[in-house]
Design goal:
382 residues; alpha/beta; eight-stranded mixed sheet; six-stranded mixed sheet; 13 helices; 14 strands; 21% strand; globular; binds adenosine monophosphate
Length: 382
C-alpha cells in the first residue's frame, strides 16, 4: 500500500509518498511561495531532483502540480495516482476533539475549523491543504493526523494551568502539547529497538529541533509534555523563548511601549538560541560560536542543556522512575556535544552515557554505558 502524506502551511505544501511494505520514501517534495510571486516545486525521487517554477495561485493549483510531478513520466515516482491508497494530512491542533488520527468527513472538517481559535496560524493552512486535495482527489480516503492527539492522555494535573478553572471550562485554555506524532513514533521505535513493548516502559522522549518538546511516555501514553496551549512553552528553542514569567512580559511591554502582538512576535521569532546568543537560531552556528569563545552563545547552550535536564529529572519524578531516554530531531539526532552535556552528571538517577557510543549522528543507536540503569537512545524521527 502506498500512502501520500501532505503537510500544508499557509504558503507551502510538503509531501511524501511512502510505500508501507517497507516504509520507504518513494518521493519527497516541497512547494513554496503558493499564492505569491516565484512559486516553486522541488521533488526528490531517489537520486533524481526535479524543479518546476510556475505560478501557483492557491493550494488547489499546488496540489495539481504535486500530482503531475508525482506522475511525471521521467521524474515521477508513480505511473498514476491510482497507486495511492490513501492520503494522510498533518493537522497541528486537534483540541480535545481528537484523541487519534481520524478519517476526514464533514464532521471532522467542522471540528478542525472549530479548533482554529487555538491555532489561528496553522489549522487554516492545514485545512486549505485538505480541501485542495479533496478537490483534486475526491475519491481517495483522507486521514487527519494531529500533532496534539497523542497528548490527550495527559491527566488534568498535567494539562491545566494554575489560572481560574473557568478559563478551561469556557475557553478550553490548557496544555495541548505538540510533536505528538514524533513522540509516539520514537517511543514505539525505541521500545522495538530494545526488543521491548512500549507498554512495559517509562520513556522520556526529547524532540530537539528548531522547535523542541519533551514528553513523558508512561507505559505507551503521554502523561506530560513541555509545550503548552501553543508551541511556545517549554525549553529554549531556535527562535522561541520557551517558558518565561508572564509578568516579565508586562514589564517589557510597559517599559518599551509595545503591545502584546509585538511581544509575542519577539517571543516566537527573536528569542531562544537566536535571542540569547545574538548569533543564530541554528544550533550548528551557536555551537561554533561557543567554541570560538562567544560568551552569549555559551550561555544559550547552557540554558538549553539545563532546561532539558530539568524536564528529564522532573518527568522521571512524576513517572516514579525512567527506563529509557530518547533523543530525536535535528539537534537530538546530531549534536553529540548537546547529548553529552545533558547526560553528564546524571548518574544519581541511573543515567550513564558511553561517550564513544555517543559519537553517532542520525541513526538508531544505543548510547548508554553497559551498566547504565536507564537506556539512552538516538532514534531519528519520521
Ligand atoms: P529540525 O527542526 O529537526 O530540522 O532541526 C533543526 C536544528 O537541528 C537546527 O538547529 C540545526 O542546527 C540542528 N542540527 C542539524 N544538524 C546538526 C549537527 N550536525 N549538529 C548540531 N546541530 C544540528
Amino acid at each position: 500500500m502506498k500512502i501520500l502524506i501532505v503537510n500544508a502551511g499557509s504558503s507551502s505544501l510538503k509531501y511524501q509518498v511512502i510505500d508501507m511494505a517497507d516504509e520507504s520514501t518513494l518521493a519527497k517534495g516541497l512547494i513554496e511561495r503558493i499564492g505569491i510571486a516565484g512559486s516553486k516545486l522541488k521533488q526528490t525521487v531517489g537520486e533524481k531532483q526535479y524543479t518546476v517554477e510556475l505560478p501557483m495561485k492557491d493550494h488547489i493549483e499546488a496540489s495539481k502540480q504535486m500530482i503531475s510531478a508525482l506522475t511525471h513520466a521521467e521524474h515521477g515516482a508513480l505511473k498514476s495516482m491510482d497507486e495511492i491508497s490513501a492520503v494522510g494530512h498533518r493537522v497541528v491542533q486537534g483540541g480535545e476533539t481528537f484523541t487519534a488520527s481520524t478519517l476526514i468527513d464533514d464532521a471532522c472538517l467542522n471540528a478542525i475549523k472549530e479548533n482554529i481559535p487555538l491555532a489561528p496560524l496553522h489549522n487554516p493552512a492545514n485545512l486549505m491543504g485538505i480541501q485542495a486535495c479533496l478537490k483534486v482527489m475526491p475519491d481517495k480516503p483522507m486521514v487527519a493526523v494531529f500533532d496534539t492527539s497523542f497528548h490527550q492522555t495527559m491527566p488534568p494535573q498535567a494539562y491545566l494551568y494554575g489560572v481560574p478553572y473557568a478559563y478551561y471550562e469556557r475557553l478550553r485554555v490548557r496544555r495541548y502539547g505538540f510533536h505528538g506524532t514524533s513522540h509516539r513514533y520514537i517511543a514505539n521505535q525505541g521500545a522495538a529497538f530494545l526488543g521491548k513493548d512500549v507498554k512495559d516502559l517509562r520513556i522520556i522522549t526529547c524532540h530537539l529541533g528548531n522547535g523542541s518538546s519533551i514528553c513523558a511516555v508512561d507505559h505507551g501514553k503521554s502523561v506530560d509534555t513541555s509545550m503548552g496551549l501553543t508551541p511556545l512553552e517549554g525549553v529554549l528553542m531556535g527562535t522561541r523563548s520557551g517558558t518565561v514569567d508572564p509578568a516579565a512580559l508586562q514589564f517589557i511591554m510597559n517599559t518599551d511601549g509595545i503591545n502584546i502582538d509585538e511581544m509575542l512576535e519577539i517571543l516566537n521569532k527573536k528569542s531562544g538560541l537566536l535571542g540569547v546568543s545574538g548569533v543564530s537560531s541554528d544550533m550548528r552556528d551557536v555551537e561554533s560560536a561557543a567554541l570560538e569563545g562567544n560568551k552569549q552563545a555559551q550561555i544559550a547552550l547552557n540554558m538549553l542543556v539545563r532546561g532539558i535536564k530539568k524536564y528529564i529529572a522532573g518527568y522521571a519524578a512524576i513517572m516514579g522512575g525512567v527506563d529509557v531516554v530518547i533523543f530525536t530531531a535535528g539537534i537530538g539526532e546530531n549534536s553529540i556535544e548537546l547529548r553529552e552535556a545533558v547526560l553528564s552528571d546524571m548518574s544519581f538517577m541511573g543515567i550513564e552515557l558511553d561517550k564513544e557510543k555517543n559519537k553517532v549522528r542520525g541513526k538508531d543507536a544505543e548510547i548508554s554505558a553497559a551498566g547504565s540503569k536507564v537506556k539512552l537512545l538516538v532514534i531519528p524521527t519520521n
